[in-house]
Specification:
This protein has 297 residues and is of the alpha+beta class. Helix content is 30%, strand content 25%. It folds into 2 domains: 104 residues, 2-Layer Sandwich (Phosphorylase Kinase, domain 1); 132 residues, D-amino Acid Aminotransferase, Chain A, domain 1. It contains 7 helices and 15 strands. Strands 8, 9, 12, 13, 14 and 15 form a 6-stranded antiparallel beta sheet that branches. Strands 1-2-3-7-6 form a 5-stranded antiparallel beta sheet. The model has no long low-confidence stretch (mean pLDDT 94).
């Protein structure tokens, strides 16, 4: 039987906000994050989702939160439904594997992007001006080339519309000099720690974005972390600079949509089952490579 995407509904539980992928519920002194199977492409949410995608994202985040706790503390409390408040137990089957109980933190209004390879908007900027995030790079890089050193390029955190790239100086104006420098140092450390580990498992983390919050005076890593949705994961065994590598994410979806006569504005077209299942396989493969275990679906 073909698995189906799950619709997230928790009657009686107060919803704090709904994102492109995650539903966030307010439990008083804690939040409940629930990762749906929704998928977006070209800033449009597709009408049908990728089965088990939410479980993959949630459990990869758990994996990295566990591994990086010595770099920076994070907001994760538990992904075990048995640890959740009593009012959530009737929803245990829906929540299992795709939900995380987290500490409440004050969100910092910047995204911390670390790039280890030259691809996407960074490659376009480099081609145009020889810079990335406004910072000059040496000549001679190819598309998808590995940077001599990873680069930190922040952006604003937009509730609606597109995030906007900003300079490090602009970021420090927003959050303060000392905290801004800490965000850089922690983000670079997280990226290097994760990228080195992932490479031993056959995955290149080309770039990623981190989000942080404050609990009192303490910096906390929040949201999702180092997933195929927040990062570019490339298979190391087929990587070749000079062309755009295949990704462990929604590339099947993007490639399919590019073949359609669709103007990339809502409403988005429904995705064929074949595309959904191929994408599901790549998400599950990324989880297995990173963790060494099969995801319980």
């Amino acid at each position: 039987m073909t698995p189906a995407a799950v619709k997230i509904e928790l009657p009686g539980i107060e919803k704090f906000k709904s994102g492109k992928v995650r539903e966030v519920y307010d439990l008083g002194d804690q939040y409940l994050f629930v990762a749906s199977d929704r998928i977006s492409a070209f800033d449009c949410i597709m009408p049908n989702g990728i089965p088990d995608k939410g479980r993959v994202l949630n459990m990869i985040s758990k994996f990295w939160f566990d591994r990086t706790g010595d770099v920076v503390k994070n907001h994760m409390i538990s992904t075990d439904v048995a640890d959740f408040p009593a009012e959530l137990q009737e929803h245990a089957e829906l929540l299992r594997g795709r939900s995380m109980l987290v500490k409440k933190a004050e969100l910092l209004p910047v995204e911390c992007i670390v790039r280890g390879y030259l691809i996407g908007s960074g490659w376009k900027e480099y081609q145009k001006s020889g810079t990335i995030g406004g910072m000059p790079l040496r000549a001679g890089y190819e598309m998808a080339g590995k940077l001599d050193e990873p680069i930190f390029t922040p952006s604003t955190k937009a509730d609606e519309g597109h995030d906007e790239n900003i300079s490090i100086d602009q970021m420090k104006e927003i959050v303060g000099e000392e905290l801004g420098q800490k965000l850089i140092d922690v983000s670079m450390n997280l990226y290097k720690t994760a990228a080195d580990y992932a490479l031993t498992k056959g995955i290149i983390i080309a770039d990623t974005k981190f989000e942080f919050g404050m609990i009192g005076d303490e910096l906390i890593l929040i949201d999702e972390v180092l997933t195929p949705d927040s990062s570019r994961f490339w298979p190391a065994d087929t990587y070749k600079p000079g062309s755009s590598p295949f990704s462990f994410d929604k590339q099947f979806v993007r490639d399919y949509l590019e073949t359609l006569d669709w103007d990339k504005t809502p409403p988005a077209p429904a995705l064929p089952e074949e595309i959904l299942m191929k994408s599901r396989e790549k998400y599950l493969e990324a989880y297995k490579l990173l963790t060494g275990t099969e995801l319980e679906c």
